[in-house]
C-alpha cells in the first residue's frame, strides 16, 4: 500500500482528499503546516511514496518546504497545489524541487492520475535502474541509461553518476536533461524548453530556465563557469554537447 502525505491547512480540502485517496487504496496522513510536514518527511523512518503539497501554508510555505526537503537530501515525489496558476509560480515550484503541479480548483481524477505517475517513478528509483537499457541521445526515454564523457545518467533511478559521486536528480531536472540530450548538438530555445518540458505556453520570465541550467552545470561540468556540455547560445537558449573534444 502506497503512503501519501497531504500538506494542506484547509481542513475540509485535506479531509476530502484523504477520504478519496483512501478509497483508492492509499494510506494517507495529513500535516496542516510546513514545519509539521518537514518533521514527518525528514524523520529517520520516513516511508511516504509521494507528497501533495499546498503552496499557501501558515509559517513556511510550500516553496520553502520543497526547497528544504531537497537540500536535506529527501527526494520523495512532490505534487504541488497552487491557487496561483501564473507560469512564474509554476516555475518557482519546479525550481524549489516540486515534480509536478496542479492549479486549484482541480479535478480529483487528474490529481490521482498525477500521483500514480509520480509513484511509478518512485518505484523505478527504488529498483535503482535495474533492467534499464542504454540509449543513444535521440532515443533516450524515461527509464534508460545514457553515458557521455565518463558520466552516466540513469533516468529510471533519477541519478547522475560522475566518477564516485552520485547526484540525485529531481524529476524536472531529469526531464530537462533528457530534452537537451535528445536535441544534442542543436540550439534549443528557452521557449521550447518551457513548452516541451514544463508544458507552459504563455509568455513568462525565462530566468527560471537559466537557474535550472546553472544547477545542472554544477552537476555535470568540471568547471561550471566554463561549461563544455551545456553551452549558452546567446539570444536563443542552450545546446548540449556530449563529447566536447570531438564536437
- Termini separation comes to 49 Å
Specify Rg, calculated over alpha carbons: 18 Å
* Series of H and E elements: EHEHEHEHEHEEEEHEHHEE
Report the oligomer: single chain
CATH fold assignment of the largest domain? Rossmann fold
Please identify the top-level CATH class of the largest domain.
Alpha Beta
Content of β-strand:
15-25%
What is the number of helices?
Answer: 8
Q: Architecture of the largest domain, according to CATH?
A: 3-Layer(aba) Sandwich
Amount of helix: 25-40%
Provide the spatial order of strands within the biggest beta sheet.
Answer: 2-1-3-4-5
Count of domain modules: 2
Largest sheet: 5 strands, parallel
Mean pLDDT across residues: 85
Describe what you observe in this structure.
This protein is an alpha/beta fold. Helix content is 38%, strand content 20%. It has two domains: 3-126, 3-Layer(aba) Sandwich (Rossmann fold), CATH 3.40.50; 145-246, Winged helix-like DNA-binding domain superfamily/Winged helix DNA-binding domain (Arc Repressor Mutant, subunit A). The chain has helices at residues 11-23, 34-41, 62-71, 87-96, 108-126, 171-182, 190-196, 207-220, and strands spanning 3-7, 27-31, 50-54, 78-82, 100-103, 145-148, 151-154, 159-162, 165-168, 188-189, 230-233, 237-240. The chain has a five-stranded parallel sheet, with helices on both faces. A four-stranded antiparallel sheet has the order 6-7-8-9, with no helix packed on it. Residues 128-133 have low confidence and may be disordered.
Amino acid at each position: 500500500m502506497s503512503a501519501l502525505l497531504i500538506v494542506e491547512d484547509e481542513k475540509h480540502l485535506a479531509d476530502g482528499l484523504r477520504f478519496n485517496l483512501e478509497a483508492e487504496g492509499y494510506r494517507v496522513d495529513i500535516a496542516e503546516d510546513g514545519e509539521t510536514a518537514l518533521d514527518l518527511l525528514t524523520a529517520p523512518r520516513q516511508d511516504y511514496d509521494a507528497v501533495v503539497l499546498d503552496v499557501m501554508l501558515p509559517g513556511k510555505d510550500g516553496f520553502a518546504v520543497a526547497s528544504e526537503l531537497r537540500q536535506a537530501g529527501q527526494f520523495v515525489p512532490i505534487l504541488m497545489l497552487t491557487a496561483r496558476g501564473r507560469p512564474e509560480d509554476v516555475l518557482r515550484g519546479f525550481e524549489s524541487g516540486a515534480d509536478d503541479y496542479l492549479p486549484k480548483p482541480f479535478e480529483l481524477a487528474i490529481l490521482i492520475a498525477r500521483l500514480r505517475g509520480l509513484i511509478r517513478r518512485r518505484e523505478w528509483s527504488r529498483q535503482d535502474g535495474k533492467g534499464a537499457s542504454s540509449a543513444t541521445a535521440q532515443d533516450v526515454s524515461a527509464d534508460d541509461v545514457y553515458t557521455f564523457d565518463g558520466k552516466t545518467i540513469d533516468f529510471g533511478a533519477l541519478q547522475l553518476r560522475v566518477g564516485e559521486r552520485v547526484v540525485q536528480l529531481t524529476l524536472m531536472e531529469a526531464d530537462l536533461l533528457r530534452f537537451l540530450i535528445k536535441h544534442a548538438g542543436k540550439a534549443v530555445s528557452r521557449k521550447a524548453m518551457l513548452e516541451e518540458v514544463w508544458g507552459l505556453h504563455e509568455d513568462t520570465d525565462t530566468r527560471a530556465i537559466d537557474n535550472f541550467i546553472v544547477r545542472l552545470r554544477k552537476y555535470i561540468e568540471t568547471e561550471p563557469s566554463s561549461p563544455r556540455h551545456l553551452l549558452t547560445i546567446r539570444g536563443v537558449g542552450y545546446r548540449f554537447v556530449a563529447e566536447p573534444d570531438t564536437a
